[in-house]
Design brief:
By secondary structure, the protein is α+β, with helices and mostly antiparallel strands. About 40% of the residues lie in helices and about 20% in strands.
Length: about 250
């Protein structure tokens, strides 16, 4: 939030850019009382970098084989199963809250300092489940240390075609993290367009796209208007889930 606030109040000359995320632009301003920036008024979107899905990772010893098994197991033990995240108000928590709302289950939230600690807790059996970025989960799954039951993308991922989506398994949850470049509001339109052209050119280069894909990010090529609409839509979506889950950080 400190970095986002700094960018929001910087000179709008095109030389200060922010790599915004769902946390910084869609979630934090809605769950923290003292946020000194308005993501919808203080920034102008340059363009998307890309997005990434989450996968539901569970401890291998949990007696479930499918998402339906997991939901049934959780419903039989309301408030007993646990899920990890990398912090209160993080995308990992709020995405799991949406899954809980859709599935009608009650689970206990346990926070950790980072995705690595959160998935290690699942491996160790300290918690039962975690909605984790696909790129973080795959090495653990390939070694058999976690089971992956579902992915939160709208369609199956090309890099993990064997993981069924939540939606196709009867739980319409399509949500994920993302990265977008924004600049302070008031940055001249011609400067925004120049930055957008440079960003899209970089994303189209094989060197850059290969690195992003290897890190689990699906590159996106958008106009400033499309990126602006994306941030507005995601702001409403993440905020609604957080409010329904009564998430607040004071």
């Amino acid at each position: 939030m400190i970095g986002t606030e700094y960018a929001a109040h910087s000179k709008p000359d095109g030389y200060t850019l922010l790599q915004g995320t769902a946390e910084s632009l869609a979630i934090n301003p809605q769950i923290h009382d003292k946020v000194r920036y308005d993501p919808l008024k203080d920034f102008t979107a340059v363009g998307m970098i890309g997005s990434f899905p989450f996968v539901l990772a569970v401890n291998p010893k949990l007696p479930v084989a499918t998402l339906a098994d997991f939901v049934d197991h959780a419903r039989k033990q309301p408030g007993k199963l646990t899920f990890s995240s990398w912090g209160v108000g993080s995308t990992s928590q709020i995405a799991f809250e949406q899954f809980k709302q859709v599935a009608g289950i009650d689970m206990l939230h346990v926070t950790y300092q980072g995705a690595a600690q959160a998935i290690t807790a699942v491996v160790a059996g300290d918690v039962d489940a975690f909605l984790v970025p696909l790129a973080v989960a795959m090495p653990q799954a390939q070694s058999g240390r976690v089971k992956l039951l579902a992915i939160t993308s709208a369609q199956r991922e090309k890099s993990a075609p064997d993981i069924p989506t939540m939606t196709e398994q009867g739980y319409p949850v399509a949500i994920g993290g993302w990265h977008v470049i924004v600049v302070p509001h008031g940055t001249p339109a011609d400067v925004v367009d120049k930055l957008n052209a440079a960003l899209n050119a970089a994303l189209k280069s094989k060197e850059v796209s290969d690195v992003l894909i290897a890190q689990g990010l699906n590159p996106a090529s958008t106009t400033p208007a499309q990126a602006t609409q994306w941030v507005r839509t995601e702001y409403e979506r993440w905020g609604a889930i957080a409010r329904a889950a009564h998430i607040s950080v004071n």
